[in-house]
Amino acid sequence: MTTLSIIKADTGGFVGHCEVHPDMLVAATTAVETAIAQGLLIDGKVSRCGDDISLIMTHDHGPDAEPVHTFAWETFLRTTEIAKQLGLYGAGQDLLSDAFSGNLRGMGPGYAELEFTERASEPVICFLADKTEPGAWNLPLYKMFADPFNTAGLVIDEKMHDGFRFEVYDLYEEKRITFDTPRDSYDLLMFIGAPARYVVHSVESIKLGVPAAATSTQRLSLIAGRYVGKDDPVMIVRCQSGLPAVGEVLEPFSFPYAVAGCMRGSHHAPIMPVGLAQATPARFDGPPRVVALGFQITGGKLIGPRDMFADPSFDRARSQANEAMDYFRGHGPFEPHRLPLSELEYTTMSALEAKMADRWEPMPPVPATRAPV
Ligand code: F6R
Ligand code: MG
Ligand code: MG
């Protein structure tokens, strides 16, 4: 069995929250190369989207493995040091705890991990997003694995016809549930249509009984109990041979759907599919970005990446995202551009409520002269 792990963290932004400094990428790459040489990892690549570094690693330790999580944590400590030396913004932002004890759960960095038996040919797409939250994967995952208008294979391919099993986490109450599509599609949509709370954690093929997709599902704001940035999620999707084709996996991103995040983690904005060169959210700290790195995995080796969205067929999605951004920005501080109060990351509201407390009065009574109804 091979395990593919993407472990990511924002350990400092260049400039502001825009990008990762090249020196940090060099340090992370050196660490990964050392871990391969020492036999901890079979292979590994370092990438980034916006201000988040992603370590994309193959190994045979399984998910949640202490040595792999420890390696990632130590690598992020190293990139934090560099961010501090260079005076970069928010150095060590996602490393929430001083007391790391072998597993990253609740520690700040996000991770998506998938353990599988390698097929004769193993095409995989690693998605990395910045300025949004884990629920941002709900819509594209539904389209890839449950919408025949997106994925022709659901109708045409006999191996896909039985559908897919979605595992959904309730991030508020820390519980999980599974739905089999197409049978439970409408039930599934009722939940995952509320992506701030219900997040698809994994998907598997019902017919083949194999894992197909995994996402990072932490919510930093809930972990830390205070605002520490959106959690900028990652996702792994296996493709082809009874799973959605590469083109079916990329297709949902041809529509720049609205996600929560962007400026101060507090706005709805369109998600823009981009090549790595454009994964640098600038306007209003956005619009949120997603990159898709394609790999062929063979004997655990990561052959790639191919920068899948660096392709003219996504130009229209990018231009629609810019138009949608103008439309949302036109609302300024009004919903639905600004998130509803319950979802706001920066909560000046409680302070404001206290400050205004003695200025509120009851509404005027109904005038006595008016005839009772
Ligand atoms: C969003 C994000 C940025 C910051 C914003 C303010 O996820 O990281 O939009 O929230 O740039 O940053 P601070 O409060 O650090 O000045
Ligand atoms: Mg940041
Ligand atoms: Mg980020």
UniProtKB/TrEMBL annotation:
Reported cofactor(s): Mg(2+)
Entry binding sites for Mg(2+) 3: K230, D231, D232
Highest taxon, organism lineage: Bacteria
Keywords attached to this entry: Carbohydrate metabolism, Gluconeogenesis, Hydrolase, Lyase, Magnesium, Metal-binding, Schiff base
Binding site for Mg(2+) 1: D10, H17, D51, Q93
UniProt binding sites for Mg(2+) 2: D51, D52, D130, D232
Positions of beta-D-fructose 1,6-bisphosphate binding: H17, Y89, G102, N103, K131, Q240, S241, R264, D285, Y346
Catalytic reaction annotation: beta-D-fructose 1,6-bisphosphate + H2O = beta-D-fructose 6-phosphate + phosphate; beta-D-fructose 1,6-bisphosphate = D-glyceraldehyde 3-phosphate + dihydroxyacetone phosphate
Annotated EC: 3.1.3.11, 4.1.2.13
Pfam families (alphabetical): FBPase_3
Residues forming the catalytic site: D10 (proton acceptor), Y227 (proton donor/acceptor), K230 (schiff-base intermediate with dhap)
Residues at which dihydroxyacetone phosphate binds: H17, K131, R264, D285
Binding residue positions for Mg(2+) 4: D231
Stated family: Belongs to the FBP aldolase/phosphatase family.
Function: Catalyzes two subsequent steps in gluconeogenesis: the aldol condensation of dihydroxyacetone phosphate (DHAP) and glyceraldehyde-3-phosphate (GA3P) to fructose-1,6-bisphosphate (FBP), and the dephosphorylation of FBP to fructose-6-phosphate (F6P).
Entry domain remark: Consists of a single catalytic domain, but remodels its active-site architecture via a large structural change to exhibit dual activities.
Oligomer and partners: Homooctamer; dimer of tetramers.
HAMAP family for the chain: FBP_aldolase_phosphatase
Protein name: Fructose-1,6-bisphosphate aldolase/phosphatase
Gene (name only): fbp
